[in-house]
Amino acid sequence: MHGLSILIFRGIANSKRPDAPIPVSRNPLTAGGELLLLIIVTQSAIHPKERLMQAAQTLFAKRGYRGTGVQDIVELAGVTKPTLYYYFESKAGIYLKLVEQIFDLRLDLVKEAAGTEETIQGKLTAIIVTLMEYSRTHHEGMQIAYANIFAAPEEVPTEVRGCHKIQGTFDFVHNLIKQGQENGELDPTFDSSQLTSAIYGHFIVAASTLSLNPERWQPNWADNMVKIFLQGASNKSAGHPATASSAQVGA
Questions:
Q1: pLDDT in tens, 140-178
Q2: What fold does the segment set 47-89 form as a domain?
Q3: N or C: which end of the chain has fewer CB within 10 A?
Q4: Residues 31, 34, 38, CA angle at the centre, nearest 5°?
């Protein structure tokens, strides 16, 4: 039996006469005049579409798209092939839906985090903290996300390669960078796309490292990332000349 869960609720055994005795033979789960209601929830209580999504995420994260078959998904989900084809039409269809769900959730979390801060430094730091936490708590989702970023063209469906939602978080950060340039927080002479790639690329490397080694997480990572991006790494107080990017970004 897949996905077995047991829920126990405690309540009055007889609402009309709470003081009435309950025959033990008819109510074996009793305690102190209260009835313990035992409810067994099996996998069948979960909607088939959700079970398919959960199974697909686990398998795609573990085996990759090409290494996962429709039969593998339906067996793990406990449904039939026609059920999968009814909801998703194909393996590529369920993969695309899963990718959209992963990137939609990430973007929602990023927008919420950025909305809590006023400055570009605060927004970027909040975003990176959120993305790092997402990487640690949604391990399977991040594995699938990275597969779409780094996989060879033939390793993922063509439909996914053209999915605009994969670009959503990058585009949101890009807009923040442009706003920072417009309000004077960032140097407007730099190309906004290159600036976005710099901070976003830093996150991708850090997040992929955490995905493989979660224990390497340090609370100050996000702050340091943003400081390096905004201020550069040159030792200005020691008189070392700063590069153009470190001297101007965030000036």
A1: 888 888 777 777 777 777 777 666 777 889 999 999 999
A2: Arc Repressor Mutant, subunit A (1.10.10)
A3: N
A4: 80
Query: Order of strands, edge to edge, in the sheet holding 5-12?
Result: 5-12, 34-41, 30-31
Whether the Cβ atoms of residue 240 and residue 234 lie closer than 8 Å to each other: yes
Place of tokens 């153009």: 244
User: By C-alpha distance, which of 135, 132, 136, 142 is closest to 225?
Assistant: 132
Q: Determine the Cα angle at 33 with ends 30 and 36, to 5°.
A: 35
Structure tokens given for 23: 């025959």
Joined together, the tokens standing for residue 6 give 């047991």
Chain centroid, CA 83 distance in Å: 26
Ranges in the chain annotated CATH 1.10.10.60: 47-89
Could you say which of 3.30.390.30, 1.10.357.10, 3.30.300.20, 3.30.530.20 is the CATH number of the domain covering 103-248?
1.10.357.10
